[in-house]
Amino acid sequence: MPIRPILDAETAARNMAEIEPKYSPQEAVVEANRCLFCFDAPCIKACPTGIDIPAFIKKISTRNLTGSARTILESNILGGSCARVCPTSVLCEGACVMLDRDQQPIKIGRLQRYATDHVFENDLQVLHPPKQKSGKRVALIGGGPASMGCAAELALLGHEAVIFEKKPEAGGLNTYGIAYYKLTPEMSLQEVELIKQLGVEFRTGVEVGKDVSVSELEKEFDAIFVGVGLGHTYRLDIPGEKLPEVQEALAFIEEFHVNPLHEVAVGKRVAVIGCGNTAIDAVTQAKRLGAEQAVIIYRRGPADMPAYVYEYDLAKRDGAEFIFHAVPVEVLEQDGHVAGLKLARSSVDDQGKLTVDESDTYELPFDMVIKALGQEKMTDMLNNLLPDLELNPNGTIKTDANGQTNIPHVFAGGDGANGGAEVVNAVGEGKKAARGIHRLFTQEDIEGPIQWTRMGVVDDKPLGSGLDNPVRVKEDAKAFV
Ligand SMILES: Cc1cc2nc3c(=O)[nH]c(=O)nc-3n(C[C@H](O)[C@H](O)[C@H](O)COP(=O)(O)OP(=O)(O)OC[C@H]3O[C@@H](n4cnc5c(N)ncnc54)[C@H](O)[C@@H]3O)c2cc1C
Questions:
Q1: 283 in ligand 1 pocket by Cβ < 6 Å?
Q2: Which of 210, 294, 356, 410 is the most buried (most CB within 10 A)?
Q3: 0.90 cut: is pTM over it?
Q4: 471 pLDDT exceeds 90?
């Protein structure tokens, strides 16, 4: 049977609503006051963008929300989305000293969201690029978190940044791929607007390699940043894979980022192949969109799951089921539609070697199969775009610690270079590459957040009062700025 949308608009919206509600002002101040404001805080080191977490939390405790948001955004321009999507329990909150005291870590993600929401709700511009420009221009291929992190930093350093994005909207997976109940496309697009305010130009609907070539970009720009992310989901390569109800996880998730939630077709019995974070996102969202049964099928055991434990717990709470030690060998068909899966039992030995016993199979009924086996590298596209670009053996872009590739004016970062990590890694790598590009242009090294290290960045003149002027403010007075 073909699959159809299951829920009405109201139920779909309720099921997919954000899972972490915003703090009230009282809750935020109480939580901020639990922070010990550690010197040399481990949470800062655990953040790939190096946000001064004790400083922004201190500012919340003194009700200086604009200053708090500025502290976040000058280190991480996507601080609003990272507040929602970061795996905080393995990053900043996982490093919180409260854990050594057997106490709950400070809820850094929720506090970060509280501060950054203030900027969006009040339409504030808290970061100001210098009016005097360097005259240097950088083209960024791809409009995801890596390019946005790079472009914002370049703008704050006085360089012109133009992002080329093939999709109709910028934001990359933030706009099209992150679980809806963590980050809505609307929130992602608000961040795109924030970056536009810095003077970054977005040319959407433009595919580099098709609509414009790299050699054309090289004529117009002084440097190039490659932030193309990853490609399609790996194939199953089994009979029945071409049936209409067999979908890639990313395509399924993208559908309800571009269409109303209640118009997205979902099966009543959904199988999700794979057990990484994308598989978890697919299974929970299938369930929330009305699937009666949504099952993860994984070839190894629970201890080998690549998904974070908290994501696994979330899926269990949503009623998702898990079948371990099973490998799909055929998608079963009836009248041209998915009717189920034939699964072979598998086992893993002490050395982690997987064995599939294709003589020991069983069948289960499903009407939809979602593939979440990881994303392919963009090897072919990169070879076409930049034939001289050096790739690692696994197909990722080879860079040094500053994001510079073997071609001196070409830098890279994000999933296409790191093989697939988190939004915050992409932003951090983009930012590092921007500093590398700045060094290429000026031979100048930049340390720390730009608004703090560069005199006169705000409208090209020192800000009025001593407290407002970052250059004159002492470290211990940061809480008031
Ligand atoms: C399903 C899913 C869920 C995730 N959930 C989380 C999460 O909860 N938390 C988290 O921190 N991370 C999550 N991630 C990871 C995170 O989304 C990525 O690490 C991050 O988006 C990488 O950013 P990027 O800019 O490198 O790539 P992308 O976000 O993929 O952006 C690359 C952009 O480049 C564009 N592009 C590609 N080629 C061209 C071209 N030739 N011309 C023009 N444009 C081009 C693409 O259209 C795309 O918009 C998730 C990933 C997936 C797949």
A1: no
A2: 294
A3: yes
A4: no
For the CA of 182, the closest atom of ligand 1 is 8
Cβ(415) – ligand 1 distance below 6 Å = yes
Using an 8 Å Cβ cutoff, are 411 and 146 in contact? no
Q: Does ligand 1 come within 6 angstroms of the Cβ of 290? A: no
The residue whose CA is least distant from atom 23 of ligand 1 is 145
Which tokens belong to 145? 């978190």
137-231+376-446: CATH homologous superfamily?
A: FAD/NAD(P)-binding domain (3.50.50.60)
Q: Is the CB of 245 under 6 A from ligand 1?
A: no
Q: How many CB atoms lie within 10 A of CB 312?
A: 18
Ligand 1: nearest atom to the Cα of 171: 49
Is the CB of residue 279 below 6 angstroms from any atom belonging to ligand 1?
no
Nearest to 109 by CA among 167, 152, 51, 158: 51
- In tens, the pLDDT along 216-257 reads 999 999 999 999 999 999 999 999 999 999 999 999 999 999
How close is the Cα of 416 to the center of ligand 1, in Å?
A: 9
User: Which of the following CATH numbers is that of domain 246-371: 3.40.50.12160, 3.30.70.20, 3.50.50.60, 3.40.630.40?
Assistant: 3.50.50.60
Confidence at residue 147, expressed as pLDDT on a 0 to 100 scale: 98
- The residue extents of the domains of the chain are 20-126+463-480, 137-231+376-446, 246-371
Q: Give residue-wise pLDDT tens across range 381-393.
A: 999 999 999 999 9
Q: What number of residues does the chain have? A: 481
